[in-house]
Amino acid sequence: MRVEVIVEIRPTEDPEKVKRALLNVFEPEELEVRSEDEETFLIARASSYKSLLKLKDAIWRQGIQDAARSVLSRSLAGEGRIVFHLNKQAAYVGVVSFATEPGESPLGPIIFNVETSDVRRFLDWIAPRTYKGKVFYEGPPPD
């Protein structure tokens, strides 16, 4: 598994608050700030499912497994690759809110790029199906 998360730091934003938003939903192994032209990005990388435990915990705590599964299922970007966006402001307060439309996250989204050998296993682990409000089947962690 390989996970890369990119978030833009806009000139009006406090870089520490942007970093806090990212770290509320992701546990990186590497973290770097990269400036290109006049834009600055915070880039985080990891190679283990453990980096996504904060995101999974927030999805479960909020009880939005089915909604998350639906969004993630529609976010397939190629074989074994899922790209999805989270609202940066919601992440800052520890809440998962998927940004599915351009402009839905006014300060720019947190962009997750997940590569895994088994997308279904990833979905069954992070956002399993539920039945009458209870998890129907929780899969093992992805590779």
Provide the fold topology:
Elements: E1 2-9, H1 15-25, E2 30-36, E3 39-46, H2 53-62, H3 65-73, E4 81-87, H4 88-92, E5 109-115, H5 119-126, E6 130-131, E7 134-135
Antiparallel strand pairs: 1-3, 1-5, 2-3, 4-5, 6-7
- The SSE string, one letter per element, is EHEEHHEHEHEE
Which runs of at least 5 residues are low in confidence (pLDDT < 50)?
A: none
Strand order of the largest sheet: 2-3-1-5-4
Strand content: 25-35%
Distance between the termini: 6 Å
Structural class determined from secondary elements: alpha+beta
Tell me the helix content. Answer: 25-40%
Count of DSSP strands: 7
Radius of gyration: 15 Å
Please tell me the overall pLDDT. 94
Gross geometry: globular
Taking the sheet with the most strands, its summary is: 5 strands, antiparallel
Helix count, DSSP H or I runs of 4 or more residues: 5
What's the short story on this structure?
This protein is an alpha+beta fold and 143 residues long. It contains five helices and seven strands; from the N terminus they run βαββααβαβαββ.
Features:
30% helix, 5-stranded antiparallel beta sheet, single chain, two-stranded antiparallel ribbon, 5 helices, alpha+beta, 143 residues, 29% strand
